[in-house]
Amino acid sequence: MKLEVVRTSNLKAKPQDETKLGFGRLFTDYMFTMQFEQGKGWYDAKIRPFENFSLSPACSVLHYSQTIFEGLKAYHTEAGMNLFRPWDNFRRMNISAKRMCMPEVDEEFVLQSLDELLKIEKDWVPKTPGTSLYIRPTMMAVDPFLGVSAGKNYLFYIILSPVGAYYESGLEPVDIYVEDEYVRAVDGGTGFAKAGGNYAASLLAGEIAHKKGFAQVLWLDGKEKKYVQEVGSMNIFFKIRGELVTAPLAGSILPGITRDSVITLSRDVFGTPVREENIAIADVFEQNASGGLEEVFGTGTAAVISPVGGMTWKDKDIVVADGSMGELTRKLYNTLTGMQYGVVKDDFGWIKTL
Ligand SMILES: *Cc1c(COP(=O)(O)O)cnc(C)c1O
Fold it and tell me: Are residues 152 and 276 located together in one domain of the fold?
């Protein structure tokens, strides 16, 4: 497929103060879009000025949420910019697409198109430490049809947003709320897909936890509400008596790219064994009481590593390791962010330099 570039001379002013970027409010001058029609395949691939779409109010995505997305970042480096395992995002997007009955994309073509878009928008990658250019690929069904069935027409696009440092005042452990009423996903459901509806379904528990003063919700399994799944939109790890434990990829949790990187670094670089096994929240609390719970952290593209200092489950509160950050947590954070910003050598082939 040919990639057309539609230029504009009407460019926006770049943000003045990179310490005030926040997350996902500002967008760059251009976006990538392409369309799909059943029988015809993907067509009309373009890099074109960022602008509003025109959609029918009957558009199926607006009613039934047939939509998936991805999230990755471009990091400013001395040499230009780095991407972290971008091919894995488009591979995962195709897995999400299958689950949501949507067409797959040509991963190579989409990656090349993203490169082209980033080359045009390179001046939008912020340079202040900790900042980045957030990349949001999205796909949705756009048929103007109210019947509940898979769409025949889809829109795929990539937009770019300069974002601030996740940790403005350093890596701070947060308190999390173990949700024991609402669940995020069930076996056989859509938990492993980055599908829009999963996030709509998670909002209520998030709001309740925020009102109670917690940063994130820790989700338990949908059947017994016993085993730990994820924390907010991050995967979660517990370091217990010298070993890391995290939930297995059994269909209800999102297969995080940061999760996978943390497992590899822990095993191969830091010599910490990792078990991908179900762990009951009661066991986590018991290990804490007996002094075995050493570190707890979440992993995801946005925060990279988010240390957990305290947890509340039903009427029990615990403090993890005096509420301070663990050594492995810090080493993983420093190594991953170091690779992303091009100051730590990448021995794994994770970095793509543009
Ligand atoms: C995106 C996401 C993650 C983290 O995935 P990364 O690839 O590490 O960014 C974890 N859990 C959920 C629910 C997510 O949506």
Answer: no
